[in-house]
Design brief:
Blueprint: E1 2-8, E2 12-18, E3 24-31, E4 35-37, E5 40-43, H1 45-60, E6 65-72, E7 77-80, E8 90-91, H2 99-109, H3 111-118, H4 127-137, H5 139-142, E9 147-150, H6 151-160, E10 164-166, H7 167-170, E11 176-177, E12 182-183, H8 185-191, E13 200-202, E14 207-210, H9 213-219, E15 226-232, H10 233-240, E16 248-253, E17 257-263, H11 270-274, E18 279-281, E19 288-290, E20 292-294, H12 298-308, H13 314-319, E21 329-331, E22 349-351, H14 359-383, E23 390-394, H15 401-411, E24 415-418, H16 423-435, H17 442-449, E25 452-456, H18 460-473, H19 476-493
Helix pairs in contact: 2-3, 2-4, 2-8, 10-16, 12-14, 14-15, 15-18, 16-17
Amino acid sequence: MAIGGLDVGTTGCKLSAYDDKGNFIYSSYKEYEVSRHSGEHEIDANVIFDAVCTVIGDVAKKCTLSAIGVTTFGETFVILDDEDKVLMPSMLYTDPRGEVECAQLCDTLGEKRIIEIAGVKPHQMYSIAKMMWIKNNRPEIFERISKILLMEDFIVYMLTGNACIDYSLAARTMALDIRKKCWSDEILGVAGIDKCLLSEPVPAFNVAGELKKDIAEKLGIDTSVKIVNGAHDQVASAVGAGVFSVGCAVDGTGTVECITPVFDKIPTEEKLYSEGYSVVPYVFEGTYVCYAFSFTGGATIKWFRDNFSADKSYAELDSSVSNEPTGILVLPHFAGAATPYMDNASKAAMIGLTLEHSSEDIYKALMEGVTYEIMTNVEHMESFGINPEKLYATGGGAYSDVWLQIKADILNRPVTSLVAKEAGTCGTCMITGVAVGIYKDLNEAKEMFVKEKKTYMPNPENVKKYQKYYEAYKNIYDNVRPIVEIAEKGKKIC
């Protein structure tokens, strides 16, 4: 019998199967499209569910699944009518709609009160603002809504008929009381959203039910397969990396780079929230995580490779760089700035180039720049009492020995890579195994699944050199931002 970890992302979904000893068996992936037109960023929930059914059916041909856990991306929700039909495309978190509604919430409740309840600074990216947008702008659709489901509980509901959502994903709506772990009547009341439309908030490890008969027949598998609520994808990755204790964090480098540290109390400093950090319930009672991220982590490196070295692999590029810091400072805001700036209009900058520099130097400088940006976040988190002392690397960036050593040197912390290629599906399998009783707890599951590959220790000489450059890096944003603004105004005049 096998355990399945289903990871549903914005551009595709993957189901990975493992045996009860943590050995990988098989994985299936299905891609789908996102629509971005006329300022509307949408995705078709029907297409996502069809893709989910495809990967489940594919994996089921290779092994016998006993349970499937579900992890998904956040914020985006699906609205269904009383016949479980999708009423409109789902708005992605990048969709600009909801700004007016978010301001209305703040005008009534106050930004500080929303932060106290929901653990996030109000922003239109969160689900509740977009629910209000539908209510205000699509009333004919809103009055037909029977259920409002985020992607995790949408998949769970379609597979089992039971609507439940784990706390970590529910927190991405900006409507969950993160202390009481229930929907906030105060926020929903002002928003004009009936909580009966929403799924029941539950802890991770919740067995939502078994497969519905029609779904099981469609996929050619047994109805006894149990479906489990996993967690928000960043939380699932933290579990898959074995990040269980305070002082540890997962550093996930895909398109976006995100550090997810664990801590044991809800911070009260207003500045933490004003800088875009959110507080999310973790899988262990009394613990929380927050997300510190850069919009362009691996995307920066891919941009360089695709545009300037398309004939080379990443391994070839890595082999060409020197061991010394480049001395080039890159502000990696190629798609705007995430935490701690939360400035979508910021632009990238490169400082310190000379005729002596090569393309290999620029390649390494991009790695350094993304890591300086993460160091900025680490310093900010430390000021709020959140101090990740060790990082576990996941995602595509974890395959680069060069980049992991750069991270260890700039961050001045050990960085450990893992054997498992997909921390999200791995973590979801761990949660699922505990939920159905295969393991007594996550610590036992960790012994089976989490295998460390290599730990990169800071090089004392390079730590000193990088610290000097980092002190200069901290001044770049404030000095470059006004120049970017002048340039943008110039564009409009032209």
